[in-house]
Amino acid sequence: MKYTLPYGKREQVVDLPSQRVAGLLSPRSPKPVRDAKKAVRRSLSHPISSPSLAQLAKGKKRALILTVDNTRPRPTPLLLPMVELLEKEGLPITLLIATGRHRIMTKKELAVHLGANLLKRCRVLCHDPFDEHSMVHRGRTSRGTEIRVHRALFDHDLVLGCGFIEPSYLCGWSGGRKLLMPGVAHHASIDNNHFFLTDRDTRIGRLRGNPVSDDAFEFAEDLPLHFITYGVVGPEDELISVISGHPILAHEEGCRRSEKIYRVSSKRADIVISSPGGWPYDFDLVQGKKAIIPASEAVNRNGVILLCAACPDGLGAEPTFLKWLRTKTPAEVVRDVLDRSQFSLGAHGANILARPIVEKNVQVILYTNRKVAKRLQGTFVRSVARWDDAWKLANLLTGRDSSVLFIQKARRLILD
What CATH number does residue 321 fall under? Predict the structure, then answer.
């Protein structure tokens, strides 16, 4: 039988006897909306627990729309109806790309991501978490996270959010408060918030009682975010539904809709072949490594996780990531990441890869491009640039009769 996994901008086909296959885990595929523009306009006029966007825009002077970068689907179908409505009210519009800790987008990337139409109609800014002059201080959360954010939030009297709702291993769910933390936060604030990734209560699909999410809610509590418009996306990034309205209540409704797509019953296997979903979700290893989360839950003890991530932009991680992979054992990584003085996003990335090795004695194999495989030589992650080599190694470690589980679109799946 042949199974297909997204890998970069192409697909990887795996052919093997059906008796070895434990199953294939993937999201459900509900029907997409027929007319995206119509769905967005209806949502703007009939929001959840909020006045309509037209009512909110009355009497305002300047509008700011926070939106996602190119590690997420193109937001243009959602943004255009918002921009058109605000222009009718005579408001100048600024788009602020909420990059969080991701690198700043290039002009070429912005042109592809937003389209020439929006670039002409709106002023566009990219958040830089290291730009001290663009930040303002607004206190601290009860967990000690300094509330430092982009000052553009306070230079506009109407602040809107626009993006997509999907499961997130960071905050339980993307969207809502996540546009503020980490979207437009200072790098040190992001690091403090993300330290709570080490807490066992931080889980994909958990919105409340998740310390990363709870801290982000508190971070955002007194910051201006007046209205959101979000798309609930399906496994191919197709628009399934649109919600607008109250930044918390509308967001919660969107999460409920998304959960019906991405929560699935788990299975177990000796070899788990996991793909984050291809481009742009394996744009770099920071994104691609997210596919290891469900794979870690599904793999049998002493098994293999075979992570398929093309990573054309490289590691995408700070130097600590590679340093820890090279100089520490998996057990040392899992131990040291709990030390706040040593924690960083690079340390966290190393921990994501080390945990299944420590907790289940599995081997992690990364099938990726040649440059990334070469950079990861000498680390505890076995990296190869040819599929045949990855597959042979997985079978050598587990046996040719071992069971195999495929996980597609793994970065969004919630396993029961």
Answer: 3.90.226.30
